[in-house]
Amino acid sequence: MWIVYACGSALFAGLTAILAKCGIKKTDSDVATAIRTIVVLLFSWLMVGIVGSGSGITKLSAKTWIFLILSGLATGASWLCYFRALQLGDVNKVVPIDKSSTVLTILLALIFLGETVTWLKGIGVVCIGAGTFLMIEKKRVSGEKTEKKSWLIYAVLSAVFASLTSILGKIGIDGVESNLGTAIRTGVVLIMAWLIVFVKGKQHTLKSIPKGELGFIFLSGIATGGSWLCYYKALQDGLASVVVPIDKLSILVSIGFSAVIFKERLSKKAAIGLALIVAGTLMMLIKLPT
């Protein structure tokens, strides 16, 4: 059943990137992140109320609180970098780099969680790494001779923080109802996101957000909420080294919609890279006979 939740996470995560891209054409990415986190928080606590796990918050250990908070901080950092990268770069360039966090997550799961890595998973990691490299293409800015590279830096940082989120989250939700864990983590992200907005003095831009973009920001928040709830339920019941690769298949959803909505096209090199990423991800799901 946890595999079904992982697939649901991938679908919603793929839609998140597209909806967010539509909502940050003119809106500052940090402000958009802070707003959409409110939606995710409301969504998360709504689910806590539905399943009736709110009372469990008084039973959490100090260790659980620490790792949930650390996971939330890592998530916040990943979000801020990811949506800044989306604002500066194309979806079909940013998303593959963000999804490369699979490789680092598997290595961290091996080191800190003791999860085994078979030779087939090893090949899968190599495919994902090679595919990501092939999909990294510089974004040329129209009318300029120089190339804008800042989106690449933000995308890489997003991947690093995302991998830390998975490991810290796996430790933090041990013995915690998944919806409650998600809600607590989201609260941490919300505080972090709004602190960034006020520290950078961007709160004055709230009044100038186009209504259309605000709608897409809210929708992306709902999609993120759905993705998170599915993801951490799958992570709680399954292996991080399997759940994470399935979640990363959201790249197919994002790139598919980016081609339709934003008319973004993959080069032959990038298409080969995408095929390698998908092939490597699917290898993670194959169970070898023991």
From TrEMBL:
Name of the molecule in the record: Predicted membrane protein
One Pfam family per UniProt: EamA
UniProt keyword list: Membrane, Transmembrane, Transmembrane helix
Organism superkingdom: Bacteria
Transmembrane segments: 30-52, 64-86, 106-130, 151-171, 183-201, 213-234, 240-262, 269-288
InterPro entries per UniProt: EamA_dom (IPR000620), EmrE-like (IPR037185)
Family indicated by similarity: Belongs to the EamA transporter family.
Native source organism of the sequence: Ruminococcus champanellensis (strain DSM 18848 / JCM 17042 / KCTC 15320 / 18P13)
Cellular compartments per GO CC: membrane
Residues in EamA domain copies: 1-136, 150-285
